[in-house]
Amino acid sequence: MSQPSHPNISAIDFLRTRSLANVVQAEIERMIIDGELKPNERLNENALSQKLGVSRGPIREACSALSAMGLIEIIPNRGFFIRALSNDEAQDLSEARASVFGCMAMMLAERIKEEELAILRALVDKMEELVGLGDVHIYYPVNLEFHRQIATLSGNKRLAGIYGSFVRELHIQRYRALSSPDVLHVSNLEHRAIVDALEKRDPVAALVAARSHIMNGIVRTRQAGQP
User: In the prediction, which pLDDT does 67 show?
Assistant: First the structure.
């Protein structure tokens, strides 16, 4: 972490600002995912400052971080805008994500341990409980954790990093694709198929199940976007 350049700003003030910016970043990301901030909408710094009770400094720092994540676009002399993926961009990203996720599942099948299987099984069981509630707000974070665990347990940090970048850019599309209780159930059946393949230590089956899950999600996303 770089140190503050202004001589009158203490290290503790600098860290406090960074911590506040992280909180603001998480809230703006939530607003984007929940649809409170629409694609192509200009982010009103003054209104957001009043709503969150912070100065514009942490908001700008948070927006810069979200820009690096692909969720916000910075237009010179105009401000921060919520980035909108074109259909072609979303398709390309989703297909790339499917290939990387399938590859990580294949690698994991060759080395997975019993305690790691137990972690994944517990997450699938938890999602099954949440399916009955039909609330994507509760289901979605557990869904993210399931995918994150597979990326981490695969043991390849470079692939996990690439996958994470795809996930951040596709948050909105994925979230909306899970908006129906019926979709939640189908999605979690696919999660179980992935874990079943991992339990059999079958790399090919794991690759097919994981890639198919993402590719099916592309179809669900397209259907969710229909009027």
Answer: 86
